[in-house]
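Predict the assembly for these two chains.
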Amino acid sequence: MIDLIHAGPAMATAFFASSVEAVEAATVVLAAGVVRGWRSSISGAVAALAALAAIVAVFGTAIAAVPIAILQVVVGALLLLFGIRWLRKAMLRYAGAIGLRDEDALYAREQEALGASAGVRRDRWDTIAALTSFKAVMLEGIEVIVIVIGIGAAGNMLVPATLGAIGACVAVAVAAALLNRPLSRVPENALKFGVGIMVSAFGLFWFGEGIGIHWAFGEATIVALMALMFAASAIGVRVARR
Amino acid sequence: MKALHAIAGLFFDDGSLAIVMLAILAAAVLVVNALGGPAAMAFLVGGVIAALLENVLRAARATD
């Protein structure tokens, strides 16, 4: 039985982070499916999911052999770099320094690149559609794996992090299938801002643990680190807007 | 090569921020050995937040 008080932050972070990645992948798979045919597009996506499952199987077993302190330092550093990258971009978008991500515009651009006006026969196997979907799902999927392993491995939270990620991917896939259009109403920047804070807090915590820092309140410190990062980032956005 | 570049891009967006972050992490290891956990904690958390804010403000000003 999963202890939700301890597993909650890991599961929620994995869910929200994975949902951002899943939305990005779904946009490309949808565009490829609509323009060049669903069979090829979905086949490419399924092939990528199979490749990702193989990567998880290999790395999941290998991680168990790594000493915990080394794992905490490496995973903490990677999570911090990953989270700060998202947080920086979201802060710059909120400050108006760079434009907000527009899923509809990306969808239209992807359709154009795939030859929307070229009269492609959608009932035939289409290698371009399959490769396009494969690449999108593979790249975004690797990010999901980094998040799940990063959040889950160092704190023995792989199961809740994996459940959070799977939940997000299933929810996005179902929503995309039902709507049959890009999920442009998902508040992508707010999600990236929040997830950047959550992932960075996990990264700080695990790296600190790995180098021998004893956090005063144990894993509850992660929540305090999130609050601190949120306050600092909110101030940063306000100052950057001026 | 493109795949490696894409994977590296997961962690490194702005090169200067990534370098500063890695420098802070390396320095935190030295601080924890020299001054102990509480000092390293303050250095690590304060350093990361300060580096992020400096980078965001600099990038925002550059686009003005």
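The mean pLDDT of chain B is 86. Helices of chain B lie at 2-8, 15-35, 37-63.
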